[in-house]
């Protein structure tokens, strides 16, 4: 399969200051809680075809933030991410399909030492040269997982029925990558 327009071969570096990795989950059955990770590293290795390309991401679980200090402490604790025992989550792509702007990225997601195959619905946002001469590519992607499948089973029953934390978690990624430097002779 052909590469998206503007992507060149080589390893593109992750630009954390123009990227965001986050998730949302239903809370008490009536609202959604959102959180982001502030310490993420990734690379996009572009091969000669889409099939020869790979995305690898590592997320430090202790970098989770939701804007609520008490919740953040609980989520980082043993009931959820258990950051002491599982300091990282990883994603390694295994296949890519699609054309133009719309793609499916299949890969192995590891949370709490449990690895499952997931499919991200992705949008290739294009390639542009910034005012400083760097070539950048943007990708937006999302998927929904069952947190229980990754050992995130803590919950509390609600008096009116149901549970405090939903099982479905939507993961969203907006990633910017910078092209490898072009060597001049």
UniProtKB/TrEMBL annotation:
Residues 11-178 form the Lipid/polyisoprenoid-binding YceI-like domain. SMART domains: YceI. It comes from the Bacteria. Gene3D superfamilies: Lipid/polyisoprenoid-binding, YceI-like. Pfam families: YceI. InterPro entries: Lipid/polyisoprenoid-bd_YceI (IPR007372), TTHA0802/YceI-like_sf (IPR036761). Belongs to the UPF0312 family. This is YceI family protein. Coiled coil: none annotated.
């Amino acid at each position: 399969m052909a590469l998206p327009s503007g992507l060149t071969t080589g390893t593109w570096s992750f630009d954390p200051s123009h990227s965001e990795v986050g998730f949302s989950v239903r809370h008490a059955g009536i609202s959604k809680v959102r959180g982001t990770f502030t310490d993420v590293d990734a690379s996009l290795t572009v091969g000669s075809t889409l099939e020869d390309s790979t995305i690898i991401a590592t997320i430090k679980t202790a970098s989770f933030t939701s804007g609520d200090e008490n919740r953040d402490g609980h989520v980082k604790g043993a009931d959820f991410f258990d950051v002491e025992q599982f300091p990282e989550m990883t994603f390694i792509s295994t296949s890519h399909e699609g054309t133009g702007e719309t793609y499916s990225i299949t890969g192995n997601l590891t949370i709490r030492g449990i690895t499952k195959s997931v499919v991200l619905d992705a949008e290739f946002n294009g390639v542009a040269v910034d005012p400083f001469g760097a070539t950048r590519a943007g990708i937006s992607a999302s998927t929904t997982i069952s947190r229980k499948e990754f050992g995130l089973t803590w919950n509390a029953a609600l008096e009116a029925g149901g549970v405090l934390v939903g099982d479905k978690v939507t993961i969203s990624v907006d990633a910017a990558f910078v092209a490898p430097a072009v060597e001049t002779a």
